[in-house]
Amino acid sequence: MVLDQPLRSFFMQLAKSKPLNKAAKKWGLKFGARQFVAGQTLEEAMATVIDLNNKGLVCTLDHLGEFVTEEQEALDSTEACLDVLRAINETGADCNLSLKLTQLGLDIDESFCLKNMKRIVQTARSFGIFVRIDMEDYAHCEQTLRILEKLRNEYDGVGTVIQAYLHRAEEDVRSLKGVPLRLVKGAYKESAEVALQEKALIDENYFNIIRLHLDNGSYTAIASHDHHIIEKVKTYAAENRIPKSQFEFQMLYGFRETLQKELLEQGYKVRLYVPFGTDWFGYFMRRLAERPQNIAFALRGFFSK
């Protein structure tokens, strides 16, 4: 079940509100956000990662933030990402790093953002840690892929995300053969000019690009809570003798814990996307937009304060 379009649009607009995002940094983790955000500090997040590792789950950490417009804020975010890499290395956690380019200054200047990314990638390479560039809204898609190409000239332990609802998704997957990709349906509100609007068509294209990336021998992260898609992937991989070592299932921290356990017991790798930090509001609003049942958590959090 998904939210009706007006309500979904309402939450997506809230996610972009700079005043609300600024205010949320002072609120702490309110309105049920703690269900989906692993704390505000790196120490809290690493404790969560270690606990998840002990349960057999691998992780990717995301220091929350996006749409930065001040250079110093972008530099601070770069340092935060470097701190995450150091913490992963020091603890020996089974964990990657996920990040957003707008957090690192993409909206300020592309070359400035690339410079920040190179610092991160160079450190990740020294530790042997994989870095995932999250795909943001369509306006940043081409820039993201351009920066990815430049980074992979220096280090192949970096990948990105392709969103199935975009008309260009299949073409992008074909051009990124051999690149580790996280494949998702897509969480931003986009126009019909650039993105599919109907759930059935999005689901069809999602499985299509999963199959395409698996067939060309590339490592594939299937990021979905949709058990129908997950079952189709499991069946397709078994029928086509695609080894479990070639793909993993990814889910968001705080979601579908029973399904995670079932997949682990069946021998599949499951990676959790673990967000943390004070800049949690936009991320949380998008989670509310995606699933109506999440609103219940928010209301409980609101009325318990």
Automatic annotation (TrEMBL):
What keywords are annotated for this sequence in UniProt? Answer: FAD, Flavoprotein, Nucleotide-binding, Oxidoreductase, Proline metabolism
What are the names of the required cofactors? FAD
Quote the record's binding site residues for substrate.
K100, R286, R287
Presence of the UniProt keyword Flavoprotein in the record: yes
Which part of the chain is the Proline dehydrogenase domain? 46-293
Question: Which molecular function terms from Gene Ontology are attached?
Answer: nucleotide binding; proline dehydrogenase activity
Q: Which reaction does it catalyse?
A: L-proline + a quinone = (S)-1-pyrroline-5-carboxylate + a quinol + H(+)
Please give the Pfam families that the UniProt record associates with this protein.
Answer: Pro_dh (PF01619)
Asked whether the UniProt record includes Nucleotide-binding among its keywords, one would answer yes
GO annotation, biological process: L-proline catabolic process to L-glutamate
Q: Which EC numbers characterise this protein's activity in its record?
A: 1.5.5.2
InterPro entries in alphabetical order: FAD-linked_oxidoreductase-like, PRODH_bac_arc, Proline_DH_dom, Proline_oxidase
> Can you say what this protein is called?
proline dehydrogenase
Query: What organism does the record attribute this protein to?
Result: Shouchella clausii (strain KSM-K16) (Alkalihalobacillus clausii)
